[in-house]
């Protein structure tokens, strides 16, 4: 027998879940009074006060009436009665789990604010008519509820809930017009749902209300909310949980000879905290070096890792990096599975900020162009820190004490840096020459590093280097612009390079950035580049890290100018073709490993001298994709601008699988649209068709079905013109998939039956297997399980022939479908075998969400068969995955587990 009492709303008593009628009138007042003071003694005098609202009859009559009320209440409640007599009064004896008020308070103690507020069903004792009860005891409970609501809404805001809170908070501010916390929360909810103007208007509204009703001005919580709105705080988001504990260490290597910035380092130490700080200054002044040095110095204070991104705000050869793409990269680096990252931009950014708000992470955002570029990447919460470098001041992003204007090095600091590189003995031998070299570098660390590298490598007398540099810097002597000195240093050093290294430096001006590999450099040169790269590193013209080479922005600008001056148009075009061939053909080779069932494309041979990489296994291909990801976008844009339209659509075709597998739908959509434009510009029907089909795959995750259908129908028309049967079948399968995603399974049959006919005429077994798998799924959804089984088995057999190890997502999906079909047909052993095979494949393919979905279907089958222990095991396995991913379906699985008991 289970008895439950409820006072947080209308008074209710439940016996084994069935309501027990509590007589109206004084019986309800008596029970309500005792339950609000549960397990406490309540005197007869107090109860009489409640029963008659302060105007009781004579003591004798009141006593007799109270006794009758108690007797009647006990009779009505029967075995559910909790009323016990004590000398001089009564007490309601209840266990903590029996009374919603006690459970409410227990939840508050453990921080379960949502569970606490969920217990409230309306006004306390709404069906109990007692003025004194509602005057004396209920108001304190109302305050408890308001405090709990504040905390629950704070929790929701922390989790990224925003727009959904606005209606509730508007109601709360109407009911409680001088409750400042609700107004502050309303402001944040409005702002975080994109309604900044309304948020600021709300502040004006509450200011007026407080002034008129209380004669006061807004308190700290409201003022803080206003500052957050004005500062443009980015909304936090739904919680993402990394699939494994991964601590990223992305900071670039610190300089081995970092000197001359001790004062700046001390200043940074003095303001170390959470939030963000900005280091700004002109190009070449050492912002990145200082930020990296300090980041390494404080990295131990951020145990959850360090994230780094060069946002290329001033890169001369490419557009600034999209912060949305960077946020997705950071989530992946933190261990969040790609298929768990939201496709929608706002949801993804909310997820990013919320995850970082729960971690202690250092985020170094380098080379930022403006506030709009960096704001989405700022971590939420009070434990993480963002360090930002920019040539611009980024006004409004941070307070004055957290903005650091970096100046050129002074003479002493410059000499410390220079002497640390070339050696104190050489400075002592030629102090005047050393001082002049330092002066010619104008206090810029980049120039000092290049000059020191030259002095160290060549070992010429410093006086001779002064003469050479003064000659190169004649134009700089009449200007106060330090960047002119930098360019003079570049020109002077360039003149001393070997012919091969000088040629490579110039050719690097054609590379779209942000960094270059040795195979890419070799392709630009059409000859081995390792020695030339090493020479450029020794002269500090490029930096090397993890097998990749990077030019400073100023150096890249100089290289690009030299390329325009020193190379003919034909030389530039040939070098670009070799590089684009290297990237395109390597990406195509990677696609063969990562997505072996894709229909191949026609591709011209690579130009002589272009390096084409080979990949033994899919993991090698995936690793290369990830390493080159930052190059793909700029390279595709550069190829289009240079007129290499075929390279545009073929490169995008080759990297589509990687972009989809890592959840980069929006980036893929942008590149696919560039591919469509390039193919149409070139009059390439095959390219246009492939690009439109690829665009569809990037539109579906955002449920842009109408646009996806338009693109597919355009592809159908193109494939019909081309006579491409395999492509046409693929298009028709895509149309069926769009319909199935919208639960239009019957309509999906028509394009699939057409696809089956086309695929059979094409003779391509991969396409025929894929059509069969699609038909199996649709027939199963329509309840035609025998027909579904025939198609699924045909697909399985063909896939086994084509991909013996079955390591492919469509193969794993077909196995899952086959399991569900066999279950519907009562072939339970075969169903279990196919479910388990799908689970095994999904695990190896890192699609853990789908793996858990299949485990749930298998557990459901076992439950229906009465095999509860097996069902429990599979549910628990699925629960482990969902919990690991932070997926809301974990709660559904817990309910299913509870139903087994």
Automatic annotation (TrEMBL):
SUPFAM superfamilies: C-terminal effector domain of the bipartite response regulators (SSF46894), P-loop containing nucleoside triphosphate hydrolases (SSF52540), TPR-like (SSF48452). The keyword DNA-binding applies. Residues 99-230 form the Bacterial transcriptional activator domain. Keywords: DNA-binding, TPR repeat, Transcription, Transcription regulation. Residues 17-92 form the OmpR/PhoB-type domain. TPR repeats lie at residues 812-845. SMART domains: BTAD (SM01043), TPR (SM00028), Trans_reg_C (SM00862). Pfam families: BTAD, TPR_12. Gene3D superfamilies: P-loop containing nucleotide triphosphate hydrolases (3.40.50.300), Tetratricopeptide repeat domain (1.25.40.10), Winged helix-like DNA-binding domain superfamily/Winged helix DNA-binding domain (1.10.10.10). PANTHER family: TRANSCRIPTIONAL REGULATOR REDD, TRANSCRIPTIONAL REGULATOR REDD-RELATED. Belongs to the AfsR/DnrI/RedD regulatory family. This is BTAD domain-containing putative transcriptional regulator. It comes from Lentzea sokolovensis. The lineage of its organism: Bacteria, Bacillati, Actinomycetota, Actinomycetes, Pseudonocardiales.
